[in-house]
């Protein structure tokens, strides 16, 4: 009896679902797009220092509000925008409470411009500058969905909530999710603030901008929101092994991984005969590293023989060091039947070294592209089809032709002479 | 494999009654078409803004940003990358640099041009140039010669004091290329140009190929060259004709003019 009821309920539910699906196909489509919709969380500093009147003669807060209104008007339809504040509510002196002061002003989702503007208008400069905690919360706001995610942090002072280093927080956030970028904007920044905000930005592949005029602020935030709306290929997370035998097998695609200082990462790719493996790897410097560095990508057979390698080295300021390799697997002549593809092991090592006091984990972000395409046609000569070119070629051909003509002429004269004597 | 491709290309060309000149698919830098030129730059290899050769792309950015563009280059071309950075009114001494990477993200050397330049504190702008090596249709896998495909261009300040970080700058880049022609025509050819993400398409992964976001989608203005035509055909054929003429000349020289006088009329 119970079973039958369940069945009936199930059937009813199924019917209802079908009916709903037929009745509201638009709803289903909307769901699908919202899963891949780009998400942006604007994190605005509302600390007491925002009262300073040094942006085009008005207060920093007024400039930020004006910029936000312009940004809210210009936000593309597909972008899900949210606003979070830090230091907006607690005016007191207790550091502990002050450093927890971050609130969601407008939730990340489809944008209602009027509501969002009304919410921004209520803000008044108040409390502390807890950048680290605000970033953590902002990352939670953006959680879920497959679209690109971006945090835009607008601040006018460095973090006042040590020892939690916002730069490390940013790195942790980047290590957790894929495709989360933090861009930072500093309002009339000083040196220490520039260092901190650019460190946060570089930890996630974002950008740091210093702002001294209202117009710049609106333009920059608009640019960043538009950037979030651009479709981007999202890499697939993978974890390389420390030796080839245990390595994950990769197909053509874009992958991401983390590699600590001094670690090696192994991956495996199957390359059929007559096909070509193309692999490239980039290791990003997402923290302070020493100025000399390099990366090595080796393609090795399962038995450990190196086939080909790509290497790169550099020094000075950089965001990434990258290299690549190509391995055409030759077609087997006269082989019978389908040959099993060759397994090629890819080994990635980098020679970044951490500056003093820099955390070693999580590892540096690594991006790997693997392409297996049809093999090239080998060259049998240096020149195209062995063809010649240039005046030397013409001279040689003319000389050879002339000599051949002479010889031919003499031979026929000699033959006539022989015939006449007989 | 190659010979069939060449034959089919040749047949197609004949069928279309198009002369070899039309089949010369090495694209020459087209006239500047600045309408619709990109006004943004990417910030990583993955998000690089695609530009065409001959386009002047602009971007507004902050000092310290890493700006990325990508452009297609085909066999026989020698690309020249030019970048101009307009610096803010007040700034310290900064060094700017352009780096060019190929489709496998291998750094490509510049033959000449000021790849890195230091802007003095009073400089209003800094200009950078990089002349790449000629792109070849084929090279050995162990070489890092430039091959047809996507090229990445990275522009950044490599030496910048903290006080200058984040200051607004305007960047302008342009890629033109010189057609080197038959002198650079080599034997062999890649089955697919070095375009990132080519493997995903060639393995017929339907789901991936319908995605709107691709790592690189731009081609040269008239497609990737098939690689069979070069002016070496003309040189070689012309050489053959000259050789034949010289042969006739040489033959005539040994026979004198007209019939030998001592040959009897009946012979």
Structural summary, described in words:
The complex is a heterodimer of chains A (422) and B (267). Chain A has 422 residues and is of the alpha/beta class. Chain A has two domains: 34-229, von Willebrand factor, type A domain (Rossmann fold, 3-Layer(aba) Sandwich), CATH 3.40.50.410; 236-332 and 340-374, Sandwich (Jelly Rolls). Chain A has ten helices and 16 strands. In chain A, the strands form three sheets. Chain A has a six-stranded mixed β-sheet with strand order 3-2-1-4-5-6, with helices on both faces. A five-stranded mixed β-sheet of chain A has the order 7-9-16-11-14, with no helix packed on it. Chain A is elongated and about 130 Å long. In chain A, 42% of the residues are buried. Chain B has 267 residues and is an alpha+beta fold. Chain B has a single domain, classed as Sandwich (Jelly Rolls). Chain B has five helices and eleven strands, in the order ααβββββββββββααα. Chain B is elongated and about 105 Å long. Chain A: The chain crosses the membrane at residues 390-411. Chain A: Residues 39-228 form the VWFA domain. Chain A: This is VWA domain-containing protein. Chain A: Residues 1-28 form the signal peptide. Chain A: Pfam families: VWA_2.
Assess the beta-strand content of chain A as a share of residues: 25-35%
The helix/strand order of chain A is: HHEHEHEHHEHEHEHEEEEEEEEEEH
Radius of gyration of chain A over alpha carbons?
A: 33 Å
* Protein chain pair with the most extensive contact, residues per chain: A-B, 92 and 92 residues
* Largest sheet, strands/sense/barrel of chain A: 6 strands, mixed
Q: Could you say which overall geometry of chain A the principal axes of the C-alpha atoms support? A: elongated
Helix content of chain A: 25-40%
Helix proportion range of chain B: 10-25%
pLDDT under 50 segments of chain B (min length 5)? 9-33, 205-211
What is the end-to-end distance of chain B? Answer: 56 Å
CATH architecture of chain B: Sandwich
CATH homologous superfamily assignment of the largest domain in chain A: von Willebrand factor, type A domain
Order of helices and strands of chain B: HHEEEEEEEEEEEHHH
Number of helices of chain B: 5
pLDDT average of chain A, as an integer? 86
Order the strands across the largest sheet of chain A as they lie in space.
3-2-1-4-5-6
CATH class of the largest domain in chain A: Alpha Beta
- The radius of gyration over CA of chain B amounts to 26 Å
Keywords (chain B): Signal
Protein name (chain B): Peptidase
Protein name (chain A): VWA domain-containing protein
Pfam family, one (chain A): VWA_2
